[in-house]
TrEMBL record:
Protein name: Nucleotide sugar epimerase/dehydratase WbpM
Domain Polysaccharide biosynthesis protein CapD-like span(s) in chain numbering: 1-73
Species of provenance: Pseudomonas syringae pv. actinidiae ICMP 19096
Annotated InterPro entries: Polysac_CapD-like, Polysaccharide_Synthase-Rel
PANTHER family: POLYSACCHARIDE BIOSYNTHESIS PROTEIN EPSC-RELATED, UDP-N-ACETYLGLUCOSAMINE 4,6-DEHYDRATASE
Length: 130
């Protein structure tokens, strides 16, 4: 079984950061307070980062006895199928075959849709690629 907790209203990360700074007894460094202890910098999204986190892939939730706990009916792979794909995935990783890795992830992970090119800085450094 997969359970989902009702976590309440979404919280803005900047508000959470401000609260944590204040609760630590520190001050936020800003134009209004240039001598503050910690500045908050907005750098934008990096590739793969999300604006919000999805808790479920589908909408298949059922109420439980507790009002803030729901039960989710998610798709899953049988252990034998998953085990076979993990063996293939490990083999593809060991061969540095990232196109196969990506394809196996597409077949295995519901909703996985990678964007952009594959960039493996470690592999490029080892192989002498630019």
């Amino acid at each position: 079984d997969v359970f989902v907790l009702d976590m309440g209203e979404p919280v803005k990360i900047v508000e959470l950061a401000e609260k944590m700074i204040h609760l630590s007894g520190l001050a936020i460094r800003s134009e209004k307070n240039p001598h503050g202890d910690i500045s908050i910098e907005f750098t934008g999204l990096r590739p793969g980062e999300k604006l919000y986190e999805e808790l479920l892939i589908g909408d298949n939730v059922v109420a439980t006895e507790h009002p803030m706990i729901m039960s989710a009916s998610e798709d899953y792979l049988a252990w034998d199928v998953l085990k076979g794909r993990l063996v293939k995935l490990l083999d593809a990783v060991e061969r540095d075959d990232y196109n196969s890795v990506r394809q196996l992830l597409r077949e295995t992970v519901s909703g996985y849709t990678p964007e952009g090119e594959i960039v493996d800085w470690m592999y490029q450094e080892r192989s002498g690629e630019p």
